[in-house]
Design goal:
The protein has 202 residues and is of the alpha+beta class. The chain has 2 domains: 32 residues; 134 residues, no CATH class. It is 37% helix and 20% strand. It is built from 5 helices and 7 strands. The strands form 2 sheets. Strands 4-5-6-7 form a 4-stranded mixed beta sheet. A 3-stranded antiparallel beta sheet has the order 2-1-3. The N terminus is likely disordered.
Amino acid sequence: MENNRKDRKAGNGFIYSLIAVVVFAAAYYVVTGTGVLNPNERTISSAMSAYKLYSEGEKKNTVVLFFGDAVSGGYRPVKAEIYSSKLPVNRIKQTLLLLTAGPSAADCRQFLPEGTALKEAYLDPNNILYVDLSTEFASNCRGGTTSEYYAVYSIVNTVMLNFPAVRGVRILVDGAEKKSLAGHIMLESILKPDTDSGDVNI
């Protein structure tokens, strides 16, 4: 009898542990999108909150996101709002989340390849920003040099023209450095904004 009770307790403990793991995994999937910062319009606020990118009651600041113009094919700067978090990197992450979520206006287009998600972003001691993107950023990039160029510089311009303290951007894919995005635009060096085009001013 005593052994049976112990066996039942052990079995119940295992079941409860299994349920807890399943519930945690489901919650993690819902909040993070399988572990990356990849919100759509409905989940972007909850993602920002879940990753503690701002505190309740903080003011909002305006940033400019570099999407594409559906007609001209060039940049289409779009204003958006982020919370004025104390940590600069949290303001940058909010901005990148909005960029990866894509534009809502019909006359704008997304330069980032389909499925691109922000995994992480951090500043090194020299104020170089490392942006770690999901594998889709490289695997879904098609269309040659022009597509690669706009995919890369929509990120670089968005970051550096909104956050002047950032001295350069390095782009990683799934945590690793890549020589190029898809064979054309080099990613090995520290990237600076494209100020030669007339449509990058904010």
